[in-house]
Amino acid sequence: MGRAGSVAGVDGMRRNQMYVCICNALKDRQLAAASHGARNVAEVFRRCGRRPQCGKCLPDVAQLIETVRDEDEGVSKLAAE
Ligand code: FES
Q1: Number of domains present in the structure of the chain
Q2: I need a labelling partner for 14 at 20 to 30 A (CA). Which of 3, 48, 72, 77 fits?
Q3: Contact yes or no for 67/5 (Cβ under 8 A)
């Protein structure tokens, strides 16, 4: 599991801001905010106005997208009940 996935969900990341993408100085909070509804890593970077450089963070950003998607789906299910 990557760095982003090792944190206890997006809420945990909001409390423990950390750099996920060193090349672009992007923190987990920024990336999480840009991940809502994002289809892929490229879209998240585009929303942040940046481009991947070395690519080492890409698995972590992909994991972050999944975490945010799961949390968004959980919120939608609760709202529908
Ligand atoms: S750490 Fe994100 S592109 Fe290098």
Answers
A1: 1
A2: 77
A3: yes
